[in-house]
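One record is set out below.
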Amino acid sequence: MKRIMTLLATISILLLIVFPSACAKSDGSFGIYLADSGEQVLSLEHIKAYHSLDYSFELNTKGIEKWNSYHTYPAEPKLAQSLYKRDFILKINGSEVCRGQFYSLASSATYDGIVILDSIMKLDSAHTAIKLDFGYPPGYFSSTMSSDEERITSDLESFFSGRRLLVADEGWWFPS
């Protein structure tokens, strides 16, 4: 029995050494949370890459499933059955980086603040990303200074670079 326990412990340690990312992804180091409930919408384990030139988060299969779980409409997108206009908090290592609102390209209303687009659309294998932006429509942002935008994007780039998830290009997202 002691040999079996020793063998299992050795195998566990080797797995942690060989596959450290398997244990590091759900560590609470990154998250997008609903501001009203504190529920985590997305975490590091849902992110395939962060594209620094267009501020898009490319989601993996698990992330797409999680994102789509917030869309309860049967066929056509409905604002009330999505994340649209819900407030979020983006955190890195437990510290708040920014607050904003889930928003949609389908909206004709402007928003002066940080947004995550497109909150009413389900993702699929061809459309795998959501985009952080500063105001809606893009560029409509006067309440936060450019230094805040630089701080937020710098924090995101540093975090994802350290996890080898930073891609210095534009994702699939629509051109701004």
